[in-house]
Amino acid sequence: MRADIITIGDELLIGQTVNTNSSWIGQELSLFGVEIARSTTISDDQNEIISSLDDALNRSDLIIITGGLGPTKDDITKETLCAYFKTELVLREDVLERIKAYFEARGKEMLPSNIQQAELPKDCIVLDNHLGTASGMWFEKNGKVVVSIPGVPYEMKALMTDQILPRVKSYFSVSGMYHQTIMTQGIGESFLAEIIRDWENRIYRAGLSLAYLPSPGIVKLRITSKIGIEDATKIDGFIQELHELIPQYIYGKNGESIFDVVGKILRSKNKTLGTVESCTGGAMSAGFVSIPNSSDYFQGSLITYSNDLKINLADVKPLTIENHGAVSEQVVKEMALGGKNKLGVDYCLSVSGIAGPTGGTDEKPVGYVWIGLATPGGVKARSFQFGTDRGRNIEMTILSAAQFLRKELLGI
Amino acid sequence: MRADIITIGDELLIGQTVNTNSSWIGQELSLFGVEIARSTTISDDQNEIISSLDDALNRSDLIIITGGLGPTKDDITKETLCAYFKTELVLREDVLERIKAYFEARGKEMLPSNIQQAELPKDCIVLDNHLGTASGMWFEKNGKVVVSIPGVPYEMKALMTDQILPRVKSYFSVSGMYHQTIMTQGIGESFLAEIIRDWENRIYRAGLSLAYLPSPGIVKLRITSKIGIEDATKIDGFIQELHELIPQYIYGKNGESIFDVVGKILRSKNKTLGTVESCTGGAMSAGFVSIPNSSDYFQGSLITYSNDLKINLADVKPLTIENHGAVSEQVVKEMALGGKNKLGVDYCLSVSGIAGPTGGTDEKPVGYVWIGLATPGGVKARSFQFGTDRGRNIEMTILSAAQFLRKELLGI
Which among B36, B179, B313 is the nearest to A300, CB-wise? Predict the structure, then answer.
């Protein structure tokens, strides 16, 4: 079974927006065992929509179209699809009610253009969008399926996950591949490959395959069976072996967030957490708070970006900064201890580093970071040398700090 | 003049790699005045290369192909292009010398597959790749141009910038399109469209076009001229008019970050900033710190996720929380004033809200947020009702807070 992905939008063609929708949909469909035949990005133009759709239907069984469905007039997808499938727009009262409720819940006024969004092709299954006002549309023709959904990423993802993938599964009876993904943090792809080489070779000998999926600070290992879920036990066995081989790097599975994993450990131990941050500026704290119900363990943070605040808020001694510099083992230890005390928490992570792009020296170059951790039993610290990109350094730092705490909590 | 972009690679189709090459090339070509007709991602397959190339040549004058040129055997692009342009591979001694030098400079051994990389089509202009071993190829046919370059982003970018764009300019004598983008925050796409309808109609009557590019909390408005930079003054006039029409929503242009814009105002006024955050958990602070050199104005933050810390760190009165709840005008005002004092800053933003997905009530549903702002002259607060998604609510809150501060700083 093959699929084509069509993404509509000039902003994608001219590179104003990076096309993350295509890659996300490609990933989800291939995890489902669907082969991606081609991915095409076109402008918001009737002829382009028709020609790319014709082309895709010659090649594939399923076409996913994103974009071109907003309330403003540069969006013409809906009318083009109506013409293509020889149907007409009708006002869907149920959809209108949902759009009305959407605006009421937000205390906002509905506009005529929003009412038009309730006009949908007669001959399609309407996919309710609970996060926005543009509905998804599911067309069937000669055993093939064309789906059109809005391009706003979180609306698109919810529609894909909740409605489209389950429908694809039943409509096409996809059995397909079976995957499990192991999340690792703190080791690069090449080093990881060296350490797990024997294990990887046995994966292949067992008729399975392995993919390395690196992103800043994290490498996911995806084990795939082409047979399907019958291989689940075999795959679980390999995962268990890997846990014994590299327990310090594995923090979770299947896309779990390391902040969620650490939060669950804290909750189970009934312990609280806070942070004291300099170069990450609150990103570590925000990482923990991004998890629902993090108030069970997360109390708060001191963001001490200036040296004055390191001293006044986190009780760092002025002399420690003077003697060792703000980016030092001594300072992050005092920050962690000061934060533990001021925030009244069991564990306190601290960080000070040179995020870049400027501010580096020969001795402490851009990307040089100290992470401290105060625990009920004392305080420890570790240094890291990341790269030259500010955003990436902040991301690497907060993931490494969460991993530092995870290992401390588990005693590994 | 129109261009097609073809990117080759299964890793792009299955979403293992996000296709940043397409967006980068699209951006560069459109800045050059070239219209991007279509962008296609295909697998490393001879038939796919031929069919997408045929298709693209029917539509466009210039085809840029990336990927499919590595030393490993799954790369068949070069031979396919040879067949397509009815030419043959010949060993290019000059290229072989360059590849040899490449390996010598790195102290690495050359492999047979690298020698094969010096075999290139007879009838093409070879584009020297100084950063890798795969050369670029420039084919001309019936006034049209097909370029094939490696997919490694930094090799691709160097080849594009140093060799391809200058050649495109002289070969096609391009003049081309011209864009300017206006960044707005705090108003949805539909409402914006209502307010600026007359202005928008005049844009079209002036022979220009307008696109709405929404993302959470932000709507970008892109004005395009098909003629080119000669329309710059006309477009600037429209932008000026829009500034007079909706000054409260426009915060910048061409992809600027609102945190950068606010930071520049603070720097110019020599004022300092801090934040006190509950539901955003440090994300607002991290937003300001994401900007290089933000230490010029940003001092630090108190992340008071628990009520105890609101009281102990930010001097919120226990009775205020008891009487009004943690998510209230009174509490965010006390948070902002407490933070201004404790952090020793000129301006302090504060936030308390229900990020979700749980914790909402009838009176204060998920997405209900209060933002406070202490200034040298006093304190003010505003409430917002966002949606149901935790991550999006946090994102909307921090953008709205930055906009709140921008308007205060500019007195609008």
Answer: B313
pLDDT, tens digit (0-9, with 9 covering 90-100), for A249-281? 999 998 899 999 999 999 999 999 999 999 999
d(CA B171, CA B173): 6
Q: Please state the domain extents for chain A.
A: 2-172, 178-253, 258-410
CB contact under 8 A, A72 and B390: no
pLDDT at B264: 98
Kindly report the number of other CB atoms within 10 A of residue A90's CB atom.
13
pLDDT tens per residue across span A317-362 = 999 999 999 999 999 999 999 999 999 999 999 999 999 999 999 8
Amino acid in position A127: L
Coil, strand or helix: which one is B229? helix
Q: Is B25 exposed, middle or buried (0-12, 13-18, 19+ CB in 10 A)?
A: buried
Residue B110, classified by CB atoms within 10 Å of its CB into exposed (0-12), middle (13-18) or buried (19+), is: middle
Structure tokens at A233: 């036990």
DSSP A135: P
Residue range A258-410, CATH number:
3.90.950.20
Tell me whether residues A313 and B300 touch, CB distance under 8 A. yes
Amino acid (1-letter code) at residue A29: L
Calculate how close chain A gets to B137, using CA atoms only, in Å.
Answer: 23
> Cβ contact (<8 Å) for A70 and B290?
no
**Nearest Cα to Cα of residue A312 among B295, B343, B382:** B343
Task: Indicate yes or no: pTM above 0.90.
Answer: no
Q: How crowded is the C-beta side of B398, counted as CA atoms within 13 Å?
A: 28
**Three-state secondary structure readout of A345-400:** CCEEEEEEECCCCCCCCCCCCCCEEEEEEEECCEEEEEEEECCCCHHHHHHHHHHH
Query: Which CATH class, in words, describes the domain spanning B178-253?
Result: alpha beta
**Phi, psi angle pair for A323, to nearest 5°:** -80, -35
Q: How far is A271 from chain B (nearest CA, A)?
A: 14
A258-410 has the same fold as A2-172: no
Cβ-contact A345, A272 below 8 angstroms: yes
Query: Fold for domain B2-172?
Result: Molybdenum Cofactor Biosythetic Enzyme; Chain A (3.40.980)
